[in-house]
Amino acid sequence: MLAGTRVYLDHNASAPLRPEAAAAMTATFTITGNPSSVHREGQALRASIEAARADVAALVGCAPEEVVFTSGATEANAMAIGGRANRVICSGIEHPSVIENIIKIKVLPSNSQGKIKLDHLADELAQLPADGSNHGTAVALMAANNETGVIQPLALAAALCRENGVWLHVDAVQLAGKANLAPVWALSDSLSLSSHKIGGPTGVGALIVRKGRFLERLIGGGGQEMKRRAGTENVPGIVGFGVASRLSRGEIDDWSRIRAQRDRLEEEMRRHVPEVSIFGDEADRLPNTTCAAVPGIAADLLLMRLDLAGIAVSAGSACSAGKISSSPVLEAMGIDACLARGAIRISQGLYTENHHIDRFLAAWGDAVRRVLSHEVTAMVR
């Protein structure tokens, strides 16, 4: 949690840095050297990177040599797409780092609960050449959505990809640490991760690429990361990422408590304000994520009131330079644009307790009542 009396409920944006990760990172600052150097100092840093690589691999259930460290999941997604495919099929709920890095793209519709329509994926794949010349096509699908928390039907999508010889890239950023990733990796050709979503530092992530699969590198100029991503490694960030990965593996069962808190949160929101909409509530979701809107209340106004009350949440839509625009994710789900502009996301972490939920509910209920009361008064006048 943040210092003081504030309540932090924006873990899908970034989780607090783990003290253990910070301590491990600090230790690397005392070593001068380059991990590519052959002297003792350089090799000490190299050993730290490889230990972290093993920890990230254990989190995913892959081999260490399949882990390529990056500056974050945005770069990892761009690498997977740009280094493999000239045509990508994806859902409308993907992260912008997927959609905005594609030249030739086919965006498939989602249903009202935020899941990709598999029949549309099957139809699109059926149009590919039958001679097996599909190496330039990939399917990109996130494991769980960052706004709604809705978990995608990866097993069924992967089966379609295998039948048609198509590469499947999975953005596993939000699912990491909350569920066992080994079954997800078993379905994937490549997979992206972000350190700061699991309590590691910002500015580091990983692309997992299945051994033996070709991926053209986007950054040349050195032989780092098994010649897949040139540039001197961010040793402190990688070390912190490794620690966060190791600790996350032992916490997966703890998220059942957060799921119960999420369910109570949503039940109380509906009790306080029956007209509230909770998006994706009928689908399998991450245990910590609630995306909700009240008709007639804009997200920016609600966020400001909650912030003044000491509650940190985010908009369910994209934020840029302090401005809130309509969410492409909710648009893809067919949510009314006016309602979508009021969406906020409440995302809990393992530090979240029931009294933090109570604080949010009190502040949110008060903010909703005040906004609606103000609008009614203005209409009377």
Order of helices and strands: EHHEHEHEHEHEHEEHHHEEHEEEEHHEH
Indicate the proportion of strand residues. Answer: 5-15%
Number of contiguous helices = 14
> What percent of residues adopt helix (DSSP H or I)?
40-55%
Oligomer: single chain
Biggest sheet, in brief?
Answer: 7 strands, mixed
Distance between the termini: 43 Å
What would you say this structure looks like, in words?
The protein has 381 residues and is α/β, with parallel strands linked by helices. The protein is 40% helix and 14% strand. The strands form four sheets. A seven-stranded mixed beta sheet has the order 2-8-7-6-5-3-4, sandwiched between helices. Helix 4 (96-99) links the parallel strand 3 and strand 4. Helix 1 packs antiparallel against helix 9 (235-249). It is globular, with a radius of gyration of 22 Å. The model is unreliable at 376-381 (pLDDT under 50).
Short description:
By secondary structure, the protein is of the alpha/beta class.
Helices and strands in order:
Layout: E1 7-8, H1 19-28, H2 40-60, E2 67-70, H3 73-82, E3 87-91, H4 96-99, E4 105-108, H5 118-126, E5 137-142, H6 154-163, E6 167-171, H7 182-187, E7 190-194, E8 205-209, H8 224-227, H9 235-249, H10 255-272, E9 277-278, E10 289-293, H11 299-308, E11 311-312, E12 314-315, E13 319-320, E14 323-324, H12 328-332, H13 337-340, E15 344-347, H14 354-380
Parallel strand pairs: 1-11, 3-4, 3-5, 5-6, 6-7
Antiparallel strand pairs: 2-8, 7-8, 9-10, 10-15, 12-15, 13-14
Helix pairs in contact: 1-9, 2-9, 5-6, 10-14, 11-14
